[in-house]
Every structure is written in C-alpha cells, then in structure tokens.
Write a structure and sequence with these properties.
single chain, about 725 residues, alpha/beta, disordered N terminus
C-alpha cells in the first residue's frame, strides 16, 4: 500500500499504455494488420522456404508455347490433347487454372455459323467432332479439376451456385464441432465452366484469392461459402482428387467461438486460420517448377517426370497471366501460388498461426508492458533500461525462433510497441514526477536555504551531504525582548500578523546574505551560514546579516511606534565554530540543522544582551574573519552553564556613528585596555565614561565591577 501511494503516479501511464494496447489488439484496425503482415513478410524474406522437389508441377502456357502453337485461346482439341498427355503420364491430379465458361468458337459448327457457310459445306463437315465434346470426353477420363470464378456481387453473371458445388460435386463435407458455414469467406455467385465440363470433371475448385489490403496473397482458402453451400478451392480439390478422397472434414476451435482450427483433406490434416485459410510459405523462384506446355504436346517430357504428381495448368504469358504479389516481395502468376501451397503441404514445411497465438501475444502485451513500466518505478534508470532491452530481445528472439524452427507465426510488433510505450510513458511520468519533486524540494528547502542556493544544490547535489558532517559555520540568533508580555495585551490575530510581518523581513535579510534558516521558535530566529554549501566568508556574512537585521529592527520599531503600535527591541547574538550539520530526526521528520556547542553559544550571546543592555553581541571567533568590523569589547563572558569564558564584542553600526560617538568609543577602548591590565587608573577612566554617558549600561557594568574590586574583564552572567 505504501508503495502504491508513493509510486501511484507512475502506475497510471503503465496501465493506460497496457489498456490502450489491449483495446487496439482487440479492435485489430488496419494499421495493426499492416504491421503484423509486414513482420510476417519479413520473416519469409529473412528465411524463405527452401525448395524441395515435391510432386507438383506447373504446365505453363508461356510465351514460347504461344509462339510455337498459336495464339490464345487455343482450340479445345489442343487443350484436350494437353490434358490427355498428362493423364497418360499418370498425373495424380490435373488442376486447370483456366475458366472454360463459353463454347469454343473454333468448333466446326460455331465456325460455319460465323462464316455463314452454305448448306453443301455444312453437310460436308457435319461429321467433324465438336471441340467442346472432345474436351468433355477427355475430362471425363478422370483426375481433372476445373477452375471456378467467384463473385461477391449479387448481380454478377453466374450459373446457379448449386450446379458445381452441390448437385454434381463428388466432395462431401463433415464438421467436428461447429459447421464451417459462417466462418469461411462468403461469396454470392459462381461462374463455372460449361455444364458439360463440370459434369465430367473429378472436381471443381474456386480460383479466387483473398489478398490483403496491400494486394499481397499471404493465405489461400481451402473452403469458401457460396450462397448457402460450402465449396472447395482449386488447391483443396487438387489435393482431394490426387488422393482419391471424397470428404472434407472441418474442426472448429474448442469451445467453438472463434472459427476453424483445421481442415482435413483425405489423409492430410491442414492447420488453418479461423476462416479456413492456409498460410503460404513462399520459396524463391525455381525454374524447375515450370514445364512449358509445348514440351508436353511435343513429347519432350518423360512420363516418369509427371507420374504421381499434381500438375496445374496455367499461364505465365505476358498479357495472359494473372499476376499476384507474394510475401517475399516478388510478382508471380496466380497458378504458382497454388503450386507453392501444394508443395509446402506435401513437404510438410508450411506455416501456421495457431489459435493460441493471439492469447500469447495478449499475455506478453500485458505482462511485458507491466514489467517494462514498473521497472522504471522500482529500479535504477540503467537497470530499468536493461530490463526493457531484455524484454524486447526475448520477445523478438522468441518470435523469430518460433518461425525459423517451428514455422509458427507469432507477432512481436504490437506487444513490442506496447512495451515501448509503457516504458517511455512511465519514464516520462517518472521524470515529470522527479521534476515536480525537485520543485517541491526547491520550495521546501527554500525554507532552509537561500533560494539562489537551492538552484546550486540541485545542480550540484554532491555539495549537500545528508546524515551529518563536521563543518565550520557561523550562527546568528535573534529574539524579541518582552514579546510574550506584549502578546498578553494584544488580540492574538493582530499579534500573529505583526510577528509574521517582522519574521518575513528578518528571513528575507538572512536569505539575501545566503544564510540558511536553521529554525524559528516563536519570535526567535536562528540563521546558519556555510551549510549546506560551504562559504569561506561565512563569518563576514553572519556579521553583515546581523548588522542589517539590527538596522531593520530599529526602523521597524520606529515605524510601528509612529502608527501607535508598541513593539519590542531585537537582540542578536553571533558566534562561529565547528558543528555537525545534516539530516536529523530519522525517516519520520526531516530536520536539516546544526548540532554543537557553537549553536548554544550563539543563543547565549543573544541572551547576554539582556544583562549587558546591548543589541548585537559577536564573539571573538566570528571576528577572526571580519577584519573591518566596527565593535567595542565587552569582556570575557562566563555564561550560565559554561566553564570557560568567551571573549565578546558589541557590534557598532558605522552608519549611525557621529564624531562624538567615535571619540567616546575610543575612550572606552582605552579604559577597557587599562582594566584588562589591572591598571589603577581603569576605575577613574570608567567613572569618566559613565559621567559622560550614564545610559551606557556596559560602561556602568564595568564600573560596578571595578568598584567591587575586579581587576580584569571577566564578566560572570547570572542568567541565560
């Protein structure tokens, strides 16, 4: 609880970053999909699928085939001959990536109609076979899969969707758990080959791809929904026909809620996306994947090369080919996408984005973001940076190893981004809070240190050592004579206002001399010099501060008197010496102050003013650093509780001295010198001083002492 109270400001941006990341993760907007796809594409660019010779070939109607055999479209008899050669070579399946949706215009009857031939000519050629009939007969010999074009527009020209996929399809559909309907890609209509072809074909498959928003084909569906029926794609039908299988079995992710998990085609079980798609693991272009169609028709290919293979008939000819873009950044004919998919399925080295991948990514997003953000709050900056770097390295390395060794697609982009946002947000909040703490320290410490020194301490923290250090310092203690009695006759609110006004000015004077406020006790003020920042001239600063305080106090007293407000005389004591300064009070109370006998001595000197009738008393220890100070000696003062006397002086204000005052204090110095040496003339000298200035309480004190038999400057004080 205490940690939350002290670090709560840093938890908020971390939680916000995680919450925003989860929201984006769940909404899955297009920019996130683009980033994820970019990462998956990059995996394939770094490590493309190694090409392993698989029983899959593309029979390519390429430019050379068109040059040798004539322009496209070829007569259906030539297509029939091509398919027949493939059947003779015992290909396990022949998938034709071409749509034969219209009758052949080169058939005899169609040609005669186009030419407007006479009845005699028609009778002469009436015995020639119809090209479409020839092709249908060849298709009927088995293992041929025809292509179907799908459309989402309801008004698109199409045959009834039940014809190729329900009434005549040899495939059956079963499901484990929920049906695939509603999960797979949905289309409204289908454009099939001629009914005579469809009825003879071993299978009919959709040639339609579902590229992402950037046009790249990353996944190929195995099943689609057309109207209210399931339909296979060209790749799926090629796999089914090659195995002689009849069934497609779908399995939904348990407990059914997100989509499909796998599709079983004959003996092959293929992991899929929730939409029934298979990720395509692309390999680099391999010339041996293609066999030109003219070689097949010219008997230029050994039947053994095609035996047992799935062959796909398509085109790469310029102007005919259906260009697609792959994840590795290459353009390739659409028929090759089918071929590469079949290769990876048969070789068993495809890609998979398992249904639990999203859960893992979300978990990493939350835990990693929390660890990255909270490390800023609990660790040093360098350690927090190290934890963040380790988290990122673990995330990205783990995702890469999952791909490179297991073919798993794990997205590090969004979790990594959330980690970075959580770390940066917490760092910004931490630095902002640190800045606020600095301002708070500056404001709070300004109660102890002159504001211009606070900036120095913040810029040079090594100059401030908390915990207690020995330091030579000077101290100024002030007090108001009789203020307690004065308050008895005043309204408390007026007394507080009067005192605060006085203290504000006294503290401002102390800060102007770069003094540190040691404490305020009622109407008494204690000022410290040379701590926490060392001041080589701390004695001069302390004496100058005391003198300016005295001047203010006198002006203030006169100003209040002019307003009819009685106020008190200010008494000041100044002393220097070695003390312990630092943080006292433990963890409960922060009390930066000085401890040592010099502190008590300065306070006693302030109190000695009451006995001596003076305003400002300074010790000889302070005057050692004030060669230009104007003072008069008071004597060695033995204060209550002290065993050793202390030489003290009264501070004289040079601004208030007249020539008469100067002459008087010179005479006092001479008389004091005589007294210190035990000279008999000392009594006479002090009698002359008292006669001249009866109100000089110091001269009167020494005269009394001399008359009592004293022969030195030792003054024993009876009160503090």
């Amino acid at each position: 609880m205490r940690w939350l109270q002290s670090k709560g400001w840093g938890v908020v941006p971390t939680l916000l970053a995680i919450g925003l990341g989860l929201l984006v993760f769940l909404l899955n907007p297009v920019p996130v999909q683009v980033l994820r796809n970019f990462m998956f594409d990059q995996y394939q660019r770094w490590q493309s699928r190694p090409y392993v010779s698989a029983p899959v070939r593309i029979i390519d109607i390429d430019d050379e085939s068109l040059q040798r055999l004539g322009q496209w479209p070829w007569p259906r008899t030539r297509v029939a001959e091509l398919i027949s050669r493939l059947q003779e070579a015992q290909a396990s399946a022949i998938a034709v990536d071409i749509l034969f949706a219209e009758p052949d215009r080169t058939s005899p009857k169609a040609a005669l109609d186009a030419w407007g031939a006479s009845a005699r000519i028609r009778e002469a050629v009436s015995g020639l076979p119809d090209h479409d009939t020839v092709l249908a007969d060849v298709i009927g010999k088995g293992r041929v899969v025809l292509g179907v074009s799908l459309d989402r527009q309801m008004d698109a020209p199409a045959t009834p969707v039940t014809t190729p996929f329900a009434a005549t399809s040899a495939a059956r559909y079963a499901s484990v758990g929920e049906s695939a309907l509603g999960y797979v890609h949905q289309f409204s209509s289908a454009r099939t080959a001629l009914p005579m072809f469809v009825e003879q074909a071993a299978g009919n498959g959709a040639m339609t791809f579902e590229p992402d928003s950037d046009g790249v084909v990353r996944r190929v569906p195995l099943l689609v929904q057309v109207g209210e029926h399931l339909a296979p794609t060209l790749s799926a039908e090629a796999l089914r026909v090659s195995q002689g299988a009849s069934n497609y079995v779908t399995r939904a992710v348990p407990p059914g809620g997100v989509g499909l998990e796998e599709v079983r085609v004959g003996r092959l079980t293929l992991p899929t996306t929730p939409q029934g798609e298979v990720w395509v693991y692309y390999s680099r272009p391999v010339p041996s994947r293609y066999i030109p169609a003219w070689k097949i028709l010219g008997n230029g290919v050994s039947p053994q090369e095609l035996k047992g293979s799935i062959v796909l008939v398509g085109t790469s000819a310029q102007g005919l080919m259906d260009l697609r873009f792959s994840a590795i950044g290459t353009a390739l004919p659409g028929v090759e996408v089918h071929a590469q998919l079949l290769e990876q399925v048969l070789a068993g080295n495809g890609l998979q984005r398992p249904h639990w991948a999203s859960s893992v990514e979300a978990l990493v997003l939350v835990l990693g973001g929390a660890l990255a953000g909270f490390s800023v709050l609990t660790c040093s900056a360098l350690l927090a940076l190290g934890i963040f770097a380790l988290l990122q390295a673990t995330l990205w390395t783990g995702a890469w190893l999952a791909f490179s060794t297991q073919g798993l697609l794990i997205d590090p982009m969004l979790p990594g981004l959330v980690l970075a946002v959580a770390f940066v947000a917490s760092s910004i909040a931490y630095h902002y809070a640190s800045e606020l703490r600095q301002r708070w320290i500056q404001l709070a410490f300004s109660r102890y240190v002159s504001p211009n020194l606070v900036t120095h301490l913040l810029e040079h923290p090594d100059s401030l050592s908390l915990g207690g250090i020995r330091q030579n310092c000077s101290f100024v203690f002030t007090d108001l004579a009789g203020f307690t009695h004065l308050m008895e006759d005043m309204d408390p609110a007026d007394a507080v206002k009067l005192l605060n006004e006085y203290l504000d000015h006294m503290i401002a004077i102390a800060f102007a001399h770069d003094g540190t406020l040691d404490r305020i006790v009622g109407d008494a003020v204690a000022i410290m010099f040379s701590a926490p920042v060392v001041q080589t001239d701390h004695r001069e600063r302390a004496l100058a501060c005391a003198l300016e305080m005295q001047r203010f106090a006198r002006r203030h007293e006169r100003a209040l008197a002019a307003r009819g407000v009685a106020f008190c005389q200010t008494r000041i004591g100044v002393h220097s010496g070695e003390v312990i300064v630092g943080n006292f009070g433990g963890s409960a109370i922060f009390d930066y102050r000085a401890l040592g006998d010099p502190v008590n001595t300065a306070s006693r000197l302030e109190g000695a003013n009451k006995s001596l009738g003076t305003s400002v008393i300074v010790s000889a220890d302070t005057l050692q650093g004030c060669p230009d100070a104007l003072t008069r000696p008071l004597g060695h003062l033995l204060m209550v509780g002290k065993s050793h006397p202390l030489m003290a002086f009264e501070v004289l204000d040079p601004l208030g001295l007249t020539p008469t005052d100067t002459a008087y204090y010179a005479a006092y110095a001479h008389a004091f010198e005589l007294m210190c040496h035990g000279h008999a003339n000392a009594l006479q000298a002090f009698e002359a001083l008292v006669a001249q200035r009866p109100f000089d309480t110091v001269a009167a004190l020494h005269l009394t002492r001399l008359r009592a038999g004293a022969r030195d400057d030792l003054v024993v004080l009876a009160q503090k």
